Structure formats: structure tokens, C-alpha cells
Amino acid sequence: MQEFQFKPFHEMTESDYATVGFKSGLEIHQQLLTSKKLFCRCPAGQYSDEYDAEILRHMRPTLSELGEYDGTALMEFKTKKEIIYRIHRNTVCTYEMDDTPPFQINEEALDIALGIGMMYGCDVIDEMHIARKQYLDGSIPTGFQRTSIICLNGRIPYKGREVKVVQLSIEEDSCREVSDIGHQRVYLTDRLGMPLIETVTGPDMRTPHEVAEVAQLCRWMARSTGKVRTGMGAAREDVNVSVTGGTRIEIKGVPRIPHIPLLTYNEAMRQWNLLRLRDELNKRGIRPETFKATTENVTRLLRKTRFLPVQHALETGMTVHCVALRGYRGLLRWSTQTDTFFSKEISDRVRVIACLTTLPNLIHSDNPSESLATAEWQSVKKAVSASDDDTLVLVWGSQQDADMGVKEIIIRAKEATIGIPSETRQALRDGTNGFERILPGADRMYPDTDLPPKRITEERREKIRTGLPQDYWTRDFEYRSIGVPDDLIRPLTVSRFATLFGILVNEWKISPTLAAVVLIQFPKRLKRETQNAGTVTEDLVRRIFLAYKNNKITRDAIYRTMRKAVQFESFSEESLPGPCSREELVAVVRGSMTLLSKMKVRHEEKKGEILMGMVLEKLRGRVEGAVVAEYIAQEMK
Ligand SMILES: [Zn+2]
Fold first, then answer.
1. How far is the CA of 96 from the centre of ligand 1 (A)?
2. Among 211, 290, 305, 511, which one is most buried in terms of CB atoms within 10 A?
């Protein structure tokens, strides 16, 4: 079945992705623009690395109602992490630290969330039930996140089809991670509890590029309300990927949408290559029931090694263990992602679960020359009675960590005989991804006993519905039909100025192109030139257009006027010099001609151009360039 081999990223075609059965869906987390947090009255969006106090916690798994431990919970317990929270008095109260019950939900946040759900054409639920979603990595001090599904069954029009919006939830944001080294993980708590929506799409995207495009559509969609946060970390994507015969794998925390195509390509390739690896193992007669591994403490055999990582480990009293994977020869060099091999899958597990975070945390005999001396490999091989068909993996650490490392090596190697383990993975900067944690069980949600169900009345829905901006896909259609330039259509459909655009074009009869350029391109240009384009408000743009409509400024002067207004943080139509009269133009042109006649001009034919520049410089946007050109031409004759 796995005949197909992945090509380099840029050579993959749509039909290649169809061959491997690429499927992907998104979970988009978007912070809402509110002044307060979701279940307490602490301020939202006040970030600082400073803190007044630290709190230490240990996470412990509890039995679920079915009497089972959750896989993730157990994994987190195995890591024996100390979790440290850094708290600042201004951004955290006793609620976030689980010392007082929640306040009622932030109604403003709920309105925004419902509005976005409605724009996706979702059904809004009648009664909201708040649930607790278990999180045991420490990112939420209580061990759970309060979350509630509020909308279901929406859609995103895309490429003539529809991507399903499965559900939309409102929930609390988690802590920001500062560091995760060895057995200690540190978090900042300022972001904790901020309102967030999670939009879940169906697995309807068929190529990596489609995933990125749909993520972008969702982001624009949310932004078009003007009520969501923007900037670093305000919107974060989790991406699910699977291929035929594979497992649905979740890549967590993709920081930027442009990273999505390469990341999802790499994940699809990883799954495909793990399936091929399984076939290779099966061909060698290695299946879950025939899998064999032996282990041995080889510390004393390596006492004189010159391989530095092991040498250092031994100096600090660490233990070295060897695992012999029977029949695995060469397979740790089996390619999984771009420049990444099966050994990385094992090393990741050892790093995350045994907390052996200093790399390299293991070495193996499929890459013998890069580590131990040949004689050392020979003696280790003898100690575990390995044959030439086997692969040796060495791991080192404290007795406890090294033991845990051995267990994880065996678990991960054995999983290769089954296929692709269920886990969540972390997006890495180079476009590949790494193991994050075992996939949480389905029963990680349970009802919240602190908050009663909440009805969402028809009246409330109606009020939200009437205040909603137009769908961006409806706008898209309109803008095309009135001739907005192609490159401005997309940004305009989701712009906070979209409503104003409608007024300018339909009521004030401004040309669609001019309006679009001023609303979309000018603020961007200002941002590049002046840093503080944030102050381009709707009111300012409206007043500048009014000045233009009343002939107080020319079309050419709009940008300059806008820049001045932003720089000086003020704008009044009275302070504008007003348009230039014919008499003034005549005077300025004549004056400039006199000046020019006294200048030495090497190229006679350039005189007109120079004169034009002089006049425009003097009149600074108070007259259209075309008018000046025409008058000069006449005058020069
Ligand atoms: Zn609080």
C-alpha cells in the first residue's frame, strides 16, 4: 500500500496529497477583546514578565468517574515536574489560583463569541453548560479549563465548497510558559483566564495550502468584527492531520499561519513514513507479539569513553543503560520528516517523559561513528548479547531518569510495529514537529459544579444578530462587482473600515478604488513610515474624506493629511489651507518660472519637469497634479 514516497515540499501536487489521503482540520483559538477576564474581574491583556510572588505546585492524577487514569494525566505524573507560577498582584486574583469560586461569566465576551458563531451560520445553543476540561501539564493551576460549547454546525464558504464548522466554544486562556528544563516548568499567569473562543472545523482540507488558507479566512472572519485581539499570541492554531491508514494527530500551538503548509506536509510525511516503517518491521517478522528488547546497565563498560556527553554524565555519577532492539538494525535511521529520523521519535519521548532534556539524550548503533569508539560499541554489544541484526540504544541520567528512559525507548520502539501512536505534537521552527504528550482520553471533560446552566434568550440572540457586520464572503462578492482592485478585496472584506467603505461608496459617491486605497493601503504605508499607525481611527478617516468631498483637500493630499493627523494626533478641517485658487496657481507658477530662469539647467528639455516639481512642492496637495501639468504646458508655450 505504501508504494508512494514523499517528494520534496515544493514538488508535491494536489494529486500526490490525494494519493496519501491527506486530511486536515483546524482548532483555532482566538482571544476576545474585552477589558476583563472570563470568570473573574482581573484585567485582560496586561502582559508583563514581572512578578510579585511564586507558587509551587505538583500535579497529581485523579481517577476518572469510570475508575481509570487518563493517559495524559499518567504521563504528566511520570514526568514528576515541579510547576512554578509567577504571579503579579495586578493581573491575578484568588480565582485563578483556585482559592475562590468563579464569578458569573463575562457577558461582553459571551456576546462577542456568539456573534462570531452566528457569522459562521452556526446554530446557537439554548442553554449553556460550563464544563471543566482537564489539563495536567500545569498550564492551568486548577488542573482544568472552564469551557462551554455555544455554537454548532456552521460553515466557511471556500473554493466553491463548504468547510464545516463543527463547534465553537468559549473558554479561558492558559498560562504562558517561561521555561521547561529538567524537572521544573515555569509559567507566567497574566494570560490565564482571558476569554478565548475555540473554533473547530471538520477535517475538510485536502492539501497543506488549503489548511493555511482556511486558517486565514477564520482569522479574518474573527477580525472583521473588530472585537478580537490581534498581535503575537492572540490567535493560535492547532492543526489535525491524518493520512490513509494513519491516526489523527494534533499539532499544537502553531504560532504563524504561513508555517502551516510546511508543518502539515511534514506531519503527513511522518505518518506515511511510520506506516512504511511498520510494513518494513512486519516484513522482518517483527509484530507487537514478537517484539523483543533486552536491557543492561553498561555504566562500567564506558568508564573511559571519550564521547563527551557520556563522559560528563559519568563524572556526575549518572547511570548508562543500553537497550537492544531485536531486529531493528538500520531502522533508527529511517527517515520520518525532512532531515529527521525515527531515532528522534524515541529521543523526544525520553526528553519529555523521562525529563532528560539535555541533548543528545541518547545514542544508537545505527549511527555508530558519531559517538562511542568501535571497541566500546563491541563491548556493549557483547554485554546485551546483541547480533548484527539488532540496534543498540544508549541512554543516561540519574538512576530513576535512566530507568524511565529505558521504558520509554521500549514503548516507542514497540509502537512502531503497530503504526502511529496517538499523541499531540508540537510545532517546531524548522517546519518539522516533535512529540508533546500522549493524546488525552475522551473523558477529560466533566461538568462544572460551580456555575449553573445559563439560558441564551432569543432576545439576546436577536440583539447580537442586528449588530453584526456583513459576512466577509458577501462583501467579497460585492467588492468584485463594483471593481475594487483585486489585491485590496481580501483585506477590505475583513477590515474594521469595511462598514465605512460602504458609506463612502454608496452614500458619499467616492470612487471604490480611492476609498479602498485610502482605507487599506494608507494605514499600512503609515505603519511602515511612522510606527504609530494605530491612531488611524474610523472617525479620522471619515473627517478626511469629508474634507475631500468639500474640496478642502485634493485627492493627492489625502495621504499627507492623514499622516499629519496621525503624527500630531489631531485633525481639524479649519486648519487645512484649503484648495488653491486659479489666481494663486498662476502666481506660484509665474514666480517659479522666474526662479527657474535664474537657475542653470543642463538639459533644456527637463525644464517642464523641474518647474512642475517646484510648483507642487509649494502648493503641497492643495491642487491636483494634472491641473498643474496642464497649466504649465500652456504657460511654457
Ligand atoms: Zn482574577
1. 5
2. 211
The DSSP line for 462-513 is HHHHHTPPPPHHHHHHHHHHTT--HHHHHHHHT-TTHHHHHHHHHTS---HH
Which has more confidence, 609 or 186?
A: 186
Nearest to 17 by CA among 269, 313, 351: 269
Terminal Cα distance for the chain, rounded: 82
Taking only the tens place, the pLDDT of each residue in 167-211 is 999 999 999 999 988 889 999 999 999 999 999 999 999 999 999
The CB density around residue 555, as the number of other CB atoms within 10 Å, is 16
Q: What is the pLDDT of residues 546-564, one digit of tens each?
A: 988 888 888 888 888 888 8
pTM for the model stands at 0.78
Which residues, at least 6 apart from 234, have a Cβ–Cβ distance to it below 8 Å?
30, 31, 228
Task: Find the 141 Cα to ligand 1 centroid distance in Å.
Answer: 12
Separation of CA 443 and ligand 1 centre (Å): 28
**Under DSSP, is residue 170 helix (H, G, I), strand (E, B) or coil?**
strand
Cα–Cα distance between 366 and 343 in angstroms, integer?
9
242 strand-pairing partners = 23
Q: Name the residue type at position 291.
A: F
Report CA 420 to chain centroid distance, whole Å.
Answer: 24
544 touches 558 (CB < 8 A)? yes
Q: Where are the alpha helices (DSSP H) in 251-373?
A: 260-283, 308-315, 342-353
Q: Are 409 and 313 in contact (CB under 8 A)?
A: no
Ligand 1 centre and the CA of 171: distance in Å? 15
Distance 185 CA to ligand 1 centre (A): 22
For 225-250, write each residue's pLDDT tens digit. 889 998 888 999 999 999 999 889 99
Ligand 1 centroid from CA 91, angstroms = 7
More confident residue, 535 or 178: 178
> Residue 298's closest CA among 369, 391, 402?
402
Amino acid making up residue 93 = C
- DSSP 3-state assignment of 596? helix
Q: How far apart are CA 195 and CA 215, in angstroms?
A: 20
Q: Where do runs of H (alpha helix) occur along 33-177? A: 71-79, 107-119
